[in-house]
Specification:
single chain, 154 residues, Arc Repressor Mutant, subunit A
Length: 154
């Protein structure tokens, strides 16, 4: 019984800290790809969807949110497409995640039991604090320029 509980907690813990929403995952992939190709002309939704193998409708929905956030500008017309509104060195991963409400709140319980803090905490609270703060720091300090071209997969 104890071993089953431990594995369940470990599995739940891994899922929580390693899983971003599909929208955030795609947004990071899209913007990383754009950052890698920022010297070329505008990239349109069809080109992005094909290059990244993201469903066109989902990509346009994500790009609408990114454009609303002010990170990217959309240029209409036959030769239109998307381009960055500000330098990629100034766009942090945390900023992208916040567009889709995908961050790690300070009092978020790793076990999904509501809010968790030093006064009222879950069984994994103390072990979760260090990796949570490291992830928050990574998201806050990593720019698109830093991550563009770092991997071979988009």
């Amino acid at each position: 019984m104890v071993n089953i509980l431990c594995y369940t907690l470990q599995d739940k813990y891994k899922e929580f800290i390693l899983q971003l929403s599909n929208s955030s995952q795609y947004a990071i992939r899209i913007l990383s790809y754009m950052a890698l190709h920022k010297e070329s002309k505008l990239l349109n939704a069809t080109q992005l969807a094909e290059a990244l193998q993201i469903p066109y409708k989902f990509l346009t929905k994500i790009m609408t949110e990114i454009v609303k956030s002010g990170l990217v500008v959309s240029i209409r017309g036959r030769d239109g497409g998307y381009k960055f509104e500000k330098p990629t060195s100034e766009i942090m991963v945390n900023e992208i995640l916040s567009i889709f409400h995908d961050s790690i709140p300070d009092e978020q319980c790793v076990l999904g039991i509501g809010f968790c803090n030093g006064l009222c905490k879950c069984a994994l609270h103390d072990q979760w604090m260090e990796p949570k703060h490291l992830m928050q720091k990574m998201f806050q300090e990593s720019s698109l320029e830093d991550i563009a071209g770092k991997g071979c997969k988009f």
